[in-house]
Amino acid sequence: MDSTRKDKAASFFQCTIRERAVFEAGIKLAAIYHQFIGAPVSASNAESLERAIENGVMVQPFVESVSVRIRRESLRKKRNEYDYQSLTGEMVDATVAIRIEDVRAIGRMRYIEEIKYPLMYVERIEQL
Questions:
Q1: What is residue 43's three-state secondary structure?
Q2: In Å, how far from its chain's centre is CA 61?
């Protein structure tokens, strides 16, 4: 993004760079959840689905890295030719690193058994 567009976009954010990095991490995690939950998944396509999710997120602004793991222990065998499983929030463990200027925000989404919920949270924020 050229500096004029970057500066124009930045002018809409009435927050610190740190807060914006956290915001961007949340947007990316929400995109993973809302775009991919419900996708057909099996042991045979889990790895390719992980890479597709990662590649989709990597093209978004400020993404430094992304890692997606589908919990294989959540997958079951097909019962018949019509049976398939859909990806759920309980199956996804995703981490995104967002870098804006000298701030890196690490966001995470994973199923937390104690609260029975696929929680999206800020894992850490680093000043570079």
A1: coil
A2: 13
